Amino acid sequence: MLENEILAIFGKGETIKIITKGRKTCLPHIVRTRYVVIDHAIYVLSGNRTADWVLNALYYSEVIIRSEDYLLKAKVEEVSEEEKAKAFEAFKKKYGSLIVKKWYPISSSRCLKLIPLGSPTKRGLIKGENQVTTTYEAWVSQKNDYLNSVALAFDSAAEEYDFTISNNYINTWIRKKTIKELLKYVSPEHRLLEIGCGTGQEAVEISRYVKTIIATDVSKKMIELLSLKVRAKKLESKIIPVRLAASEIDKISEMFPDIKINGCYSFNGPLNCEPKIRTFVKHLWKILEPPGYFVCSIRNTICATEEISHIFSLQLDKLSPRKHQPIMVSVGGMDIPAFYYTPSIFVNIFKPYFKVEKIIGLPTFLPPAYLNDYYVRLRQYTSLLEKIDDLLSPHFPFNRFGDQNLFVFKKVIL
Fold first, then answer.
1. Is residue 140 part of a domain?
2. Over the stretch 182-207, which tens digit does the pLDDT of each residue have?
């Protein structure tokens, strides 16, 4: 029965994800790799005998295998030369001799046998952000607690979060641009507050330029991974992970009475998942030291490149997908509501406590991150859009039509 399950789920796929645990950091390490199924086991090859994922797998003798919507725990064995030769023949049959010769030199490659430990477990399909199957009405009828649902969704996404972002060109391009903008408003003596830190990729980078970052997130798993990352990188004096929702940041003053917050940032839309956003604004105003800059990005209700892509692909039924709010989004295989904002509405939420200094489309001329695969295929023709975006996205009217909008707010002295 197990053999039939393995064949049904993994028998025809081109690649799988192998999830291992770092030998020193204990952080998730994820690779996407080719594989073959022989009998009831899965065989994988590595052209690099000392690749981290291989050494991790052999060190712990166990991995997690991830297909599109299944997880499978497996025992790891390094195979005999006879089994290795058998696996090579199976790889050649599946992928062709040229690929095997190019990527897996038989003299230097390593072959691992992954033996299932029980049956595969079905897990929520990791979809594109807009590929939802639940309506808002259906979600409401389930009487879910909103912040708890958001926390569970990001808990579910935490393990693969770094892998997902780092393998998406548009996401990494956005991350570089937002950090570059933030650094215009900080100094080495500043203590910052981050809202929605995720696994802390931004915090790790920004910590090089400031004294301290209190990094907050509503997800328990995200904070746990950031804590592991902080210890592994010896950043305990620079980054303080704290599990808090954005609307709860008034507790920061009680938790850290000796730390004065000089600035705050929030990237990639955490505030789109904060229903008490006006409460957050009031708390932020109270704890920020003057001049009190807040740099954040949120999802926009109108994305020009999204509309254009639907028109060119003749998907006219998908025009204006963000018109009605809240909108359902997929996070970690779970559908949750998110609140997108027009730039004018978002700016009004911050009045009278903050004045907007700058609005930037993020991006305006590149497509949304969920269309990354299409963009990357055409990048030899479309890379000019990145230069155009840098030039025009800070200016009206272009700064009103990005997938996200990046805002720079300054505290108002009332």
1. yes
2. 999 999 999 999 999 999 999 999 99
